[in-house]
Design a protein that fits this description.
Elements lengths: L1 E6 L3 H15 L3 E5 L10 H6 L2 E6 L7 E6 L4 E4 L13 E6 L2 E7 L9 H22 L4 E6 L23 H12 L3 E2 H5 L15 H4 L6 E5 L7 E6 L15 E5 L5
Parallel strand pairs: 1-2, 7-8
Antiparallel strand pairs: 1-12, 2-4, 3-4, 5-6, 6-7, 8-10, 9-10, 11-12
């Protein structure tokens, strides 16, 4: 079962690249972020024509998340992160697919920091941690996939000294992510590639993609029942170089089927 996360940075502009990626790389599950489209403008017909069932939570101009499943319809279990009923941002959606619970998330950027946006990011991380703990208690195989807007360690960023004051790399954010993982979650890419410099995002400016001046901010965390099934993980880096590409590349894992 191949599960991918992909911040599309505007599904309207990136739809041709998305459809091409689905056709060439054939993920079984694709978690999308930054749809930047209201609910009624999501291209459901094109996604279904590509062979995928889909659920989505749109938002005009900003945010937006979706879960696609190849040849199946995701069974939605949640479409907002619990803990703040007044938070109307479309940043979380969750579904059951072939016995695996998949949470798709788009964590706030948090810049400029300090400030209200950074405070919101820290609160969102707290809510995510609490929900993640509840998911662990279910003893289900769970994958929490998405754009976390967190650079976990110095190996996850080109020239870390340039990021010391950025909300993606501040100690409070990195500590919160480390605490989340320490609860029992497995950072899948790091588990299989512990010392390799692997990036998932390259800014459009300063020729960053060609220079490989990137960040690793897209993560797939696995619960204890899912982690032993992990067999491979990687980044479809070349997709970032396609015409009208997102500034993120799809990041993916493959887990074995449950043999029980």
């Amino acid at each position: 079962m191949k599960i991918a996360t992909y911040n599309v940075n505007g599904i309207g502009a990136r739809l041709p690249a998305l459809i091409r990626w689905l056709a060439e790389f054939k993920p079984d599950v694709a978690c999308l972020q930054e749809l930047k489209a209201p609910q009624e403008k999501f291209p459901e017909a094109a996604i279904r024509e590509a062979g995928y069932g889909v659920i989505w939570h749109g938002q005009k101009s900003w945010n937006g998340v979706a879960i696609l499943a190849r040849g199946a319809d995701p069974v939605e279990s949640r479409r907002a992160l619990p803990g703040d009923p007044e938070d109307l941002h479309s940043r979380y959606i969750e579904a059951l697919i072939n016995g695996v619970r998949v949470g798709c998330l788009y964590l706030p950027n948090g810049n400029p920091a300090p400030g209200p946006k950074f405070d919101y990011k820290l609160r969102w991380l707290e809510r995510l941690t609490k929900h993640a703990q509840e998911l662990l208690a279910t003893a289900e195989p769970v994958v929490l996939a998405g754009d976390y807007n967190v650079i976990p360690t110095e190996i996850d960023v080109y020239k870390p000294e340039h990021w010391v004051k950025d909300a993606l790399f501040l100690p409070e954010v990195r500590s919160a992510f480390a605490n989340l993982v320490a609860m029992g979650w497995t950072d899948s890419l790091r588990k299989l590639h512990p010392d390799e410099r692997i990036y998932t995002f390259w800014d459009y400016f300063r020729n960053n993609y060609a220079r490989d001046a990137g960040l690793r901010i897209d993560h797939l965390l696995l619960s204890p029942p899912a982690a032993p099934r992990l067999v491979s993980a990687g980044v479809d880096r070349e997709v970032r170089g396609w015409e009208k590409a997102s500034d993120h590349a799809p990041t993916w894992i493959v887990i074995e089927d449950d043999s029980r």
